[in-house]
Design goal:
- The complex is a heterodimer of chains A (183) and B (110).
- Chain A contains nine helices and no strands.
- By secondary structure, chain A is mainly α.
- Chain A has two domains: 91 residues, RNA polymerase sigma factor, region 2, helix turn helix motif (Rna Polymerase Sigma Factor, Chain: A); 79 residues, Orthogonal Bundle (Arc Repressor Mutant, subunit A), CATH 1.10.10.10.
- In chain A, helix 2 packs across helix 3, helix 4 packs across helix 7 and helix 6 packs across helix 8.
- Chain B has 110 residues and is mainly α.
- Helix content of chain B is 79%, strand content 0%.
- Chain B has four helices and no strands.
- Classes of the chains: A mainly alpha (183), B mainly alpha (110).
- At the A-B interface, helix 2, helix 3, helix 5, helix 6 and helix 8 of A face helix 1 and helix 2 of B.
Chain lengths: 183, 110
């Protein structure tokens, strides 16, 4: 029988059990790496480095985890802080490297297989805050309250990021709607 | 504010992309993280060991010095307390504590 998440966390908190933490990593590595890949606009190596830092910080800080939010929510908040600290040190964020944010639609003459690329391209033009809010609320289907906890922002600010991000994506990807597949 | 109906197609598109490539295979990632954690734990243990060895060494040196000078350890501790008044002992003690604290912090710094 699989050991529950609560039991694994308790083992790490009481005994600093590395095996138990290894099991927690296996359960959540995909979620954390996926999140950081979105935030770093697909830079896989950087995303994995940041994911490693996230889990190391989580191991060190797990004694302070009280279970007020879910473990995944707690991990995501660490990942978000690790990501922000990384770019704070560099004083630039991924969106700063985008040469020119298109005012109009991104390429819309594409096959179904290229839609993912177009969506990623459109997402990469959003600010980190908007991208994170969109990812958590629309792609991970977390509540806006959970996103607010993870991002350390007021609920109203998260709502604003989601709405502005959606508006910008809707403009950039308007071709999809006209094409009719999602409309 | 974006109308909910106007962006429903977008929300569906975002979800469909997310569901289609949701899982990332471990491919040694968790092993790498555990190795990094094990290295940090070893380094942490070594730093504490360095501090403990230093403190024990200082205490042994103090005990040896007092025995060689013909006093017991208790006498060696009591001697400055009788020789100096509190206006000297407190600041000197505070400065000594601060130095030990800074030393330990520096030794434990990652």
């Amino acid at each position: 029988m699989a050991i529950s998440e609560e039991q694994l966390i308790a083992r790490v908190q009481k005994k600093r059990c590395q095996h138990a933490f290894g099991e927690l990593i296996k359960r959540y590595q995909s979620d954390v790496r996926q999140l950081l890949r979105k935030l770093t606009s697909g830079d896989l190596a950087l995303a994995d480095d940041l994911a490693q830092d996230t889990f190391i910080k989580a191991f060190k800080g797990l004694k302070n985890f009280r279970g007020e939010s879910g473990f995944k929510t707690w991990l995501f908040s660490i990942a978000w802080n690790v990501y922000r600290d990384h770019y704070r040190a560099k004083k630039r964020r991924p969106e700063d490297y985008v040469d020119e944010v298109p005012d109009s639609e991104v390429e819309t003459d594409f096959s179904a297989g290229m839609k993912r690329e177009a969506l990623d391209e459109a997402l990469s033009t959003l600010s980190s805050d908007q991208r994170m809010a969109i990812y958590l609320c629309l792609q991970q289907e977390m509540t806006q309250a959970e996103a607010s906890t993870i991002m350390g922002l007021p609920l109203g600010t998260v709502k604003s990021h989601v709405n502005r991000g959606k508006a910008k994506l809707a403009t950039l990807l308007a071709g999809w709607r006209r094409e009719g597949e999602y409309g | 504010m974006v109308n909910k109906l106007e962006t429903q197609w977008l929300e569906e598109a975002l979800k469909s992309v997310e569901v289609s490539d949701n899982y990332i295979d471990d491919n040694g990632f968790s092993t790498g993280v555990m190795e990094a954690i094990a290295q940090e734990e070893t380094a942490r243990f070594l730093r504490w060991r360095k501090i403990i060895v230093s403190v024990v060494g200082l205490l042994l040196a103090f005990g040896l010095f007092s025995i060689m000078s013909g006093h017991s350890v208790a006498e060696a501790i009591a001697e400055p307390l009788t020789r100096y008044d509190w206006t000297t002992i407190v600041p000197v003690g505070a400065i000594f504590s601060l130095l030990v604290s800074f030393g330990c912090t520096a030794a434990l710094k990652e």
